[in-house]
Prior knowledge:
By secondary structure, the chain is of the alpha/beta class. The chain has one domain: Rossmann fold. The chain is about 40% helix and about 15% strand. The protein contains ten helices and 13 strands. The protein has helices at about 10-25, 50-60, 80-100, 135-155, 175-180, 200-215, 230-240, 250-255, 270-275, 285-295, and strands at about 5, 30, 40-45, 65, 105-110, 160-165, 165, 185-190, 195, 200, 220, 230, 245-250. Helix 3 (about 80-100) links the parallel strand 4 (about 65) and strand 5 (about 105-110).
Amino acid sequence: MSRIAIIGARGLLGTELVLAGEKLGLPVIRADISTDDLKNYAIVDITNPDSLAFFFDAWNPEVVINCAAYTKVDDAEDEYAACMKINAMGVENLARICRERKSYLVQISTDYVYGGSASDSRERVPYDESENCDPCGIYGWSKYFGERSLANLYPENSAVIRTSWLHGTTGPNFIKTILRVAKEKDELKVVNDQYGSITWAPWLASVIYKIIDKRVTGIVHACASDATTWYDIARDVIERSNLETKVGPQTTAESGRKAPRLLYSKLNTKSLSTILDEEIPINKDFIDQFMKVHQKG
């Protein structure tokens, strides 16, 4: 049974991967850049080749899932060096050592590799895995450079899983924020001109293990199979929660965010459906799952 190292194991997706892996009875190695829980977690810094070498010598993982990332999209516009160091250089370091040690590597990427300046003239159809990238903002470019490093250094034994609008049982996310604010305000404004798909982290974790089992290589898109907007999600969860808060539409420009945002980032999931031989859930399915957990909590 393959030893599976989850780097970034304390994060939103990493936490779900640990839980799912342990339920499957897999030998999971929890790893992160820092923790006080040295009994249950290993320390590793993907930006430091020596740290990676020490980690591989100690644990000898046969599979590596990299969830470590700089994800503060707005801050990345100023902290671009830190963002590039983790999302681009860190992935390059991982690709090199996984190639040296012959470990299968799964890299988590994002819809932000699309949606840049050229997207304004593009027809609004879901992005295929083979489509040329047009990164959006510093964050998007950093993730794209990470993808390219992996493709150039270790394409024969690695997979890139692009996802979008990730939500899970832990950590902050859009739906949790909407429900909290809706209990405090009578009315709120939500962006209605960004189209994409949410992804339920427990589902994505199960998909990743299926991809590992099949040793899929190349790029795979994993998210809900249909498109929605933040505005539609907000209205849906507020209605399900029986709250009387009024939700009004707002444009991306009106929201005043520092980093550019993707106005259309729907990822095509047909390849994933073929790989798994199953239908991919729609956005409402993922909201259902979130609400079940939220209401229990």
